[in-house]
Each structure stands twice: as structure tokens, then as C-alpha cells.
């Protein structure tokens, strides 16, 4: 039973988004992906690639691409297949692609994540940060009272 589920999972058609940090070009990555496997569909995008195919084939392509530059190439599984009417812009009447803004935020922090991965591989240890102390509730109420009394005095003048 477990083997059947694993086989079905490997045969499932998925799409993974391959996002590049700041040094690779999507066209170079696409060429490398085509060299690895002809059993997947590769779409070049402004942020990297979308690789569609059987899970085992897609995972293999991603693994091989990450070998090119493990600190700058990232991937995640796409939530909905291309053209899915629940997410398709044509069906929704245009506008930005759902999830685009999230992907943009993720792209902006990838250079920092890349630097962190390099530091970890070089043996850097995390620096413990002090835990900020919460403001006492009674002190917070005092501050509110002080500020509201200042505003009340200012309006009387």
C-alpha cells in the first residue's frame, strides 16, 4: 500500500517554480534544465523558470539545477496548475497574477538568504539576540494617562 502511494506520488504531474537570486540568468538556467531532462516542460519567466512534469522528473531537474549554484537557486511547488480557472488571470479579468506580490517579497530577501547559507556552510554560528522585554501593563497605562493629559492641557490653552 505504501509503495503504491509513493509510486502514485512520483507519477503525479506538478509544477515547481525555480527562483534565482541575483547572479544567474533565466535563459542559462533553462538551457541547463533542457540538458538534464526532456520529460518536463520548462517555461522561462522573469524570476526564473517553471518546470512541469511528473514529480520524480521535476524533482530530478531541480536537484541538478541547484548543483549549478546551491546558494542562488531556490524552488517551491506551485499551488495550482497553469491555467487553473481558480487562479487564471484571464478568468479573473486581468490584474497581477495571484501570489505575484508574495513572490516579489520573497525575491527581495533571497540575496540575504544566500549570504546566510554561505556563512552557515563556512561554519558561522548564530548570534543570540536579546529578547525584548515587554512593557509592564501598569506602566503602559501611566504613559497613556500622561500623554492624554498633555493633549487635554494643550487644547485648553
TrEMBL record:
Organism superkingdom: Archaea
Q: Which InterPro entries match?
A: Methan_mark_6
Q: Where is this region: Disordered?
A: 76-95
User: What Pfam family is a match, any one?
Assistant: DUF2102
- For bias type Basic and acidic residues, the affected ranges are 76-94
Please state what the protein is called. Answer: Methanogenesis marker 6 protein
Q: Which organism is it from?
A: Methanooceanicella nereidis
Amino acid at each position: 500500500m505504501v509503495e503504491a502511494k509513493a509510486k502514485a506520488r512520483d507519477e503525479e504531474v506538478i509544477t515547481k517554480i525555480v527562483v534565482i537570486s541575483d547572479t544567474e540568468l533565466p535563459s542559462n538556467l533553462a538551457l541547463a534544465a533542457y540538458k538534464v531532462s526532456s520529460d518536463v516542460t520548462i517555461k522561462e519567466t522573469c524570476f526564473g523558470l517553471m518546470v512541469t512534469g511528473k514529480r520524480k522528473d521535476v524533482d530530478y531537474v531541480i536537484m541538478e539545477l541547484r548543483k549549478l549554484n546551491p546558494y542562488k537557486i531556490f524552488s517551491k511547488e506551485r499551488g495550482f496548475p497553469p491555467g487553473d480557472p481558480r487562479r487564471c488571470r484571464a478568468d479573473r479579468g486581468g490584474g497581477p497574477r495571484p501570489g505575484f506580490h508574495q513572490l516579489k517579497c520573497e525575491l527581495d530577501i533571497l540575496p540575504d538568504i544566500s549570504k546566510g547559507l554561505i556563512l552557515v556552510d563556512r561554519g558561522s554560528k548564530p548570534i543570540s539576540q536579546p529578547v525584548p522585554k515587554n512593557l509592564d501593563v501598569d506602566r503602559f497605562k501611566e504613559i497613556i494617562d500622561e500623554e492624554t493629559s498633555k493633549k487635554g492641557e494643550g487644547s485648553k490653552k
